[in-house]
């Protein structure tokens, strides 16, 4: 999964542009429509896609802490989190439903731009050594979490997450970028 910083920057920018285009083209009815393959509406799914980027902001400090500890610490932490997959799934679903009310079509594009700018600033300060550090991850939580992820993998994760969920949008013909 590891991507070069330039590829990550490109992916962040592409995802921001896509979100802005979808939101500009979508009617209220489009956003209220159920997405394809999820229980979320399109608007809730769009927020969930933005949330994938917000999660990375919280994950990066955690990865740095666990990368400095002996490997059994992060393996144990990942096992504990994997054991809590069912409650996580409920919180993930309900959290995105609720948060989409605050970060709705009027706010989510600006939020994604702020988050990606913040991540890009951090990325610019990373060394090759810091990008290679990593930890064990709860690979049952998300299809793009692997048993071990580097800092570079974590930076690349929201692009994969966004692109995966983009295919589940049901915004109608001619509504996707």
Describe the protein in words.
This protein is mostly helical. It has helices at residues 5-25, 28-32, 42-68, 71-83, 85-102, 108-124, 128-132, 151-166; strands at residues 134-136, 148-150. Helix 3 (42-68) packs parallel to helix 6 (108-124). The longest helix is centred in the first third of the chain and has 27 residues, at 42-68. It is globular, with a radius of gyration of 17 Å.
Indicate the proportion of strand residues: under 5%
Helical content class: 55-70%
Strand order of the largest sheet: 1-2
Main beta sheet, described?
Answer: 2 strands, antiparallel
Q: How far do the termini sit from each other? A: 24 Å
From the spread of the alpha carbons, the general shape counts as: globular
Tally of helical runs = 8
Structural class: mainly alpha
Please provide the ordered H/E string of secondary-structure elements. Answer: HHHHHHHEEH
The strand count comes to 2
| Computed CA radius of gyration, to the nearest angstrom | 17 Å
**Overall mean pLDDT score?**
93
Unreliable runs: none
List keywords for this structure.
mainly alpha; 177 residues; 8 helices; two-stranded antiparallel sheet
Helices, strands, pairings?
Elements: H1 5-25, H2 28-32, H3 42-68, H4 71-83, H5 85-102, H6 108-124, H7 128-132, E1 134-136, E2 148-150, H8 151-166
Antiparallel strand pairs: 1-2
Helix pairs in contact: 1-6, 1-8, 3-5, 3-6, 3-8
Question: Summary?
Answer:
The chain is mostly helical. It has helices spanning 5-25, 28-32, 42-68, 71-83, 85-102, 108-124, 128-132, 151-166; strands spanning 134-136, 148-150.
